[in-house]
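Predicting structure from sequence has reshaped protein science. With that in mind, we have picked out one protein's residues alongside their backbone shape tokens:
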Amino acid sequence: MKTIFSILFFSASLLYSQNIREIDSRNKMSDQLILAGKRDEAKKKIDSTIQYSKEIQYTKGLIYAYRQKSYILYIERDYYNSIKYAETALQENLSKITYSQQADLYHILGQNFFMLKMDDHAIRQYKKMILAAQLISDKKNALYHESVAYHDLATISWNLKKDEDSAYYYCSKVYKTLQNSSLDDKLTILLAKVKFTMALLQSKRGRKDSAEYYMKNKVQIPEKINNSSESSMLLTHLAAIKLAQGETEKAEQIKNKLNIISLKTKDPNDLKKLSEIEQIISLEKRDTLKAYESLLRYDSLDTVDEIKIARSYNHFVQDKDENIYKQSKKSKYLLGSIICIILLFMYSTYRFCLYSRKKNKEKKELLSEKEDIILQLENKANLSFDEIVELAKNNSPNFITRFQEVYPDFCKQVRKLDPDIQASELTFCAFLKLNFSTKDISNYTFVAQRTVQVRKSRLRKKFNISSDTDIYLWIQNLDKTA
């Protein structure tokens, strides 16, 4: 039986491992399709991967596919759905993916909110990206993600908030860090991009000398740059730097490389950047017709952007209206529930008050009855006590009989201590219980006081009463310990 269970467990584990490899392979294939600009094919592949990952509960593959879908939708300017997929990915178990992938998701969200001019939302995502970047174990990868986040925060501060001081602060933070670090190709291009941004900022602030310093302080740009959408953004900035430095020919070479990437990726972002660079280069070369064509192409793409941004805004407004309606409905239910609870509480309080009054009345009546009974008992006890004392004084043979009737617990406790106790000893204990003094006992029983003292000593010895203990107090407490 144990062997069969082991075989079944091994087979299930093997099948699950194969399924995981299949999903990882699909995600890699989707990446290749995205780089090749085959976004429709990539989306179909990603959708099937999402479904498959859900079926086998493979969280890592599911989050990766969500990120891919979010990135494609961002490229296609469907900002609303891009945000939804990125947020859905971040709602999964993040322990299943790397901090680098988390930083990428926050970056996508930041870019989407930036394009929608929702600056506060964008800033929030970039700050999360910085925190995720600081946890990445690979130092260069961590530095790249953190630097990108700070540079994008500078862009938001400048373009959306018109806060040049904050923008310069973020850029200088990245600049100082990259200047003192060993740079790979991505970081080198990012440094060039940061320098160009700082030059523009200083120029805007009227600090021409500082602006010229950043423009002249060239960065050695790597010759080989991957054909990816990320690279196109870096190339755009690099082309702008070259144009600002008066190197039109190099800017045109970069533009040609950007053209190859845009034809491959078919990314509207790349096409828009290309049109912008072409326009500037054409104006530099005094080719007015080509500059005008580039401007028309840019305006056409910009119009499409505005339409898609408006569509995303409409979705957000609908979501907000729906949330307001749900919140309103929820508030009504909550208010109704609170009113019901208050009414129920008031009714319960009223009923409780009636019940309490009734109980208090019953308690008072019962207490009055008890007090009457206690009073009767006390009167009876006082009469009984007086009667017993009178019998004792007369040395009546009925004394001990009557005493046992009035103090049954005391007599029972004495007999418990000494089952063989004599009648004369019990009578002596009774005298002590009645708090008779040695002289009283001597007078009532017609014996000498010395004899009474001897009997007390014998009683102490019989019941092991120490000489330090008051024998009267011991006798009084005897029936209370029963």
Remarks:
- The CA atoms of residues 140 and 183 lie 8 Å apart.
- The domain at 394-481 is CATH 1.10.10 (Arc Repressor Mutant, subunit A).
- The first helix runs from residue 2 to 35.
